[in-house]
Design a protein that fits this description.
- By secondary structure, the protein is an all-alpha fold.
- Helix content is 73%, strand content 0%.
- It has five helices and no strands.
- Helix 1 packs antiparallel against helix 3 and helix 2 packs across helix 3.
Length: 85
């Protein structure tokens, strides 16, 4: 998750899944529950993103020192957006 451009595989996966979900939903998360109920591909994407986020949270708890290192601002913005919406 460093600024050096060498993001962890977990961060890369989270960023890719989150970007896909935003694209699917036209960046309107209010409609996601309805979309996920009617579209299995959206539901599966939501599940994958949730699992990726859970993995990042678990890694943060295990290795707080790693999360104190400089973090890519794009990841921070995406993570905050994910957490808020």
């Amino acid at each position: 998750m460093s600024k050096s451009g060498k993001d962890s595989p977990e961060v890369v996966e989270f960023m890719a899944l989150f970007a896909r979900l935003k694209l699917y939903s036209d960046d309107m998360p209010d409609d996601l529950a309805e979309q996920a109920a009617s579209d299995t591909s959206v539901r599966e994407l939501c599940i994958q993103l949730s699992m990726a986020a859970r993995s990042l949270k678990m890694n943060e708890r295990r290795a707080r020192v790693l999360f104190a290192a400089p973090v890519d601002p794009a990841f921070l913005a995406a993570w905050r957006d994910y957490e808020e919406r």
